[in-house]
Design a protein that fits this description.
Layout lengths: L10 H5 L3 H6 L2 H11 L8 E6 L8 H14 L5 E6 L6 H8 L17 E6 L13 E7 L23 H25 E14 L14 H14 L5 H6 L7 E2 H9 L4 H4 L2 E12 L9 H21 L8 H21 L7 E11 L2
């Protein structure tokens, strides 16, 4: 079974720094959420959560801006900041970052912010994390496409976004159930008037999604290269089919659905959609004169940060660790060579659904 995890020891945020570009674009929604909460009007605890924080490095800039703005508006109000992720997450790197102890990133710590108390939770956002009516503001970026369970095995694909028919329908049904569950848990956690800001991977109104805005499709390429390892006898049929991302990219309509239905459980729980839009964020692109091999290394380093566990865990656990890692290294080397041969075909753009949600009193 795949243990959903990002590469640790600060690797994720170091090699996925472009995700910070997406997160920074959520700042206007964060400030709108602060306006709605009117933090100066109360001296009670102001609780913030970063859901699916990984090692914290991609969101810490936004959180510092949020905390500084909150402290300016409410100088004496106590603040808690809780980073949440799965138990397999590298919380050690997160703690070192928050406390200014991560080599090369000491200046990013939050220890200088007065009256801010940092915590972490290893509970999935598919479950309730905070007591009822205690959370003021929840934030999550590039995380809620991960499902609570794998609903089906993809025979000829590695990601549901390229699948079709009954198998894709199974993923869609699981994603819909998970989305409702996520929102209902947040509804219980939020204080009256509480706010949520999300930037989730999505399929936008014209069918674009991260990994499929250029000539080559990321997930089709990964499936082809993984299949090649089976065709040459490197991996077994079981290993071929076990390489399935426990993910689903929802459409904008799927994100909106629980809010657009006044009779839904989410609407009845008091959650109201204040803003919803698709956002395409250009990331680093190959340019004429650039070293194609260097560009390919950047792309693959970013990819490995979130995808390696899916393929590593697909391999038989009985294989020696050195053999398993050698197979994975060969797989990503093939992908790197593919990009280097046609770098312009692989556009690096992120496609997200940005949302702000209020808990009505």
């Amino acid at each position: 079974m795949t243990e959903i995890r990002m590469r640790g020891d600060g690797y994720y945020s170091t090699h996925c720094s472009s995700q910070g570009l997406v997160i920074d674009r959520a700042l206007p929604l964060i400030l709108q959420a602060l306006d709605a909460l009117d933090p100066a009007s109360s001296g009670t605890l102001f609780a913030i959560a970063d859901f699916g924080a990984a090692d914290g490095g991609t969101s810490i800039g936004l959180l510092r801006t949020l905390l500084s703005e909150l402290r300016a508006r409410a100088p004496d109000r106590p603040i808690t900041l809780t980073h949440t992720d799965l138990p397999y997450n590298d919380f050690s790197a997160l703690f070192r970052l928050v406390h200014g102890l991560l080599p090369g990133r000491e200046h990013e710590g939050l220890q200088d912010l007065r009256g801010v108390f940092s915590f972490a939770s290893g509970t999935s956002f598919h479950h309730q994390i905070f007591p009822d009516a205690t959370l003021s503001l929840g934030f999550s970026a590039s995380a809620m496409h991960w499902l609570s369970r794998l609903p089906a095995t993809l025979e000829d694909h590695v990601h549901a976004v390229t699948a079709s028919g009954a198998v894709r329908d199974a993923f869609a049904a699981q994603a819909a159930a998970d989305w409702e569950t996520i929102l209902l848990h947040r509804a219980r956690e939020l204080v009256p008037g509480g706010q949520l800001v999300f930037a989730n991977f999505c399929i936008d109104e014209v069918g674009r999604y991260s990994g499929a805005t250029g000539e080559r499709n990321l997930f089709q390429t990964l499936a082809r290269l993984w299949r090649a390892l089976h065709e040459d006898g490197t991996i077994t049929s079981d290993e071929l089919h076990r390489a399935t991302f426990v993910q689903y990219y929802r459409t904008i309509a799927e994100f909106r659905s629980p809010f657009d239905d006044p009779a839904s459980a989410v609407s009845r729980a008091g959650l109201v959609l204040e803003h919803c839009s698709s956002v395409l964020t250009p990331l680093e692109q190959f340019t004429e004169g650039q070293d194609a091999a260097a560009y390919a290394r950047i792309c693959v380093s970013s990819l490995r940060a979130f995808s390696e566990s899916t393929f590593l865990d697909a391999l038989e656990p009985g294989r020696p660790q050195t053999e398993r890692q050698a197979i994975i290294d060969r797989f990503y080397a093939a992908y790197e060579a593919d990009i280097a041969a046609a770098p312009k075909a692989y556009r690096r753009e992120a496609v997200h659904c940005f949302m702000r949600v209020s808990k009505v009193v």
